């Protein structure tokens, strides 16, 4: 998932805003106690998400795929004072740990975690979204985009994680289901006239979409 040489990655992180104490705790404990810690956004990507959220100043954020809450807390840093972040995940067991992290944060009263299938939960939400972050099952990326695009405000943003998929998307020998799903998603949004897009080669790839 890391495309930068280790020494360059360290230099970049050393010259980016540091993680907060809580984010450091989440980073450390996720690697110690949770399966697949590589799913964590981590320092550099987290600071990018925070910076983008500060630029957008969202009133409503939707996150699809919570994991241990690192990315949610990074995006919450840019919320408006009365703003709200709704995050969806289907891992009820892990949610106990994640909610505890949220409750330690400055945004405990602004973050709502919903447990369930995002494909079923999203249609029940009536908010208009200023920022949507997609970081869940890859096979449904295109479906998530279709579900949220009409609720994203004009000028609002959708960010999709893992769009380089460890380099598999440009390796013609890789044709597994998830790789094909990410390829299809990247092509889908790249040719969608409703959005402006740029693919950032940050960590495992961030697709940034602005609704026109």
Overall description:
- Helix content is 39%, strand content 21%.
- The chain is an alpha/beta fold and 212 residues long.
- Strands 3-2-1-4-5-7-6 form a seven-stranded mixed β-sheet, with helices on both faces.
- A hairpin with a 5-residue loop joins strand 6 and strand 7.
- Helix 3 runs parallel beside helix 4 (70-76).
- It is globular.
- The two termini are 30 Å apart.
List the helices and strands and how they pair.
Layout: H1 6-14, H2 21-33, H3 42-56, E1 60-64, H4 70-76, E2 84-89, H5 92-104, E3 111-115, H6 118-121, E4 129-134, H7 141-148, E5 152-161, H8 177-190, E6 195-200, E7 206-211
Parallel strand pairs: 1-2, 1-4, 2-3, 4-5
Antiparallel strand pairs: 5-7, 6-7
CATH hierarchy, class: Alpha Beta
Q: The CATH topology, please?
A: Rossmann fold
At CATH level 2, the architecture is 3-Layer(aba) Sandwich
Mean pLDDT across the residues is: 97
* Tally of separate helices: 8
SSE order in H/E notation?
HHHEHEHEHEHEHEE
Count of domain modules: 1
Class derived from helix and strand content: alpha/beta
**Biggest sheet descriptor:** 7 strands, mixed
- Order of strands in the sheet with most strands: 3-2-1-4-5-7-6
End-to-end Cα distance, whole Å, is 30 Å
Shape by Cα distribution: globular
Number of strands: 7
How much is the radius of gyration in Å? Answer: 16 Å
Describe this structure in a few short sentences.
By secondary structure, the protein is α/β, with parallel strands linked by helices. It has 8 helices and 7 strands. It has helices at residues 6-14, 21-33, 42-56, 70-76, 92-104, 118-121, 141-148, 177-190, and strands at 60-64, 84-89, 111-115, 129-134, 152-161, 195-200, 206-211.
